[in-house]
Amino acid sequence: MAGFVRELERRGGPALRLEQRAAGGVGCVVWDAALVLAKFLETGACPLARRHVLELGAGTGAVGIMAATLGANVTVTDLEELQELLMVNIENNKHLVTGAVRAKVLKWGEDVTEFQPPPDYILMADCIYYEESLEPLLKTLKDLTGPDTCVLCCYEQRTMGKNPEIERKYFELLQADFELEKIPLDKHDEEYRSEDIHIVNIHRKQTNFPS
Hints:
Blueprint: E1 3-10, E2 13-21, H1 32-42, E3 52-56, H2 62-69, E4 73-78, H3 83-93, E5 100-105, E6 121-125, H4 134-144, E7 150-156, H5 163-174, E8 178-183, E9 197-204
Helix pairs in contact: 1-2
């Protein structure tokens, strides 16, 4: 499969070089929401040095690898068929990593024991687009989060077809167990921001943990 490289500029040094695939599924290119979330991490709003970070639906690994260049200890996760692309991108950018980064298979809705204890941060960019994946994704989020886990979910608001309905359902289901707070646009990176790309800060409701 032909690959083509997307460069993602960094404030503190050389750009990330991210291979994409011209053929294959949705995980094979760097989506705009991934760029916005990666650049938001660079603003320093969330301290990442020596923090344990897990990326769900990592695709090319852009967001997780950016976190690793900011000193985080990162596990980027996606389906089996995306592991090769994740490994390539980790290898291509390892000289920029100041923390650590590894790739692992994580299928939403399945056992997450090997990813325990709960990470400090969970990163998600554009993970809300299939109705059938909402329940498994929510189960995985509940299984992975501890009382102090911060979930950063970045998504592009889409108005086509069933997208608005899927989005609405996702946030409705999420609010049963989580508190949501939208990060204002003026806190996003000055250049990498857009009116229709949102970042939501998500925490477990404290009442959901045994005292």
